[in-house]
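look at this record:
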Amino acid sequence: MRTASMVLGIIGSVFGIIAAIFAMLVGGIGHAFHASSSGEITGLGWGALFLSVVGLVGSILVRNFAKVAGILMLIGGVGGIICVSYFFILPGILLIIPGVMSMFVRNRPQPSATHSA
């Protein structure tokens, strides 16, 4: 379950970085044609890029700190959807699902440190 969360989180984060760059590209093209509020799209693209990196950090941490990683992936997925909406649907889903999965992972039992002599 942790490996699946990690893989889905990494894939979602990579797609999120691509979607954020695409949103910044659209904002830049809009700014070149003097469209209104194109600067906002570029700024929200930067926010989505930051949240994708947060999701990537969460997916890397999922093996050792599952709950924290789940929270980071949920923040990255939901925040990215809020920032650039339609650009972030696929990455958002690919970050929210492993975020929820890693929230419900049980901790592995620790091996006992007692030695029999």
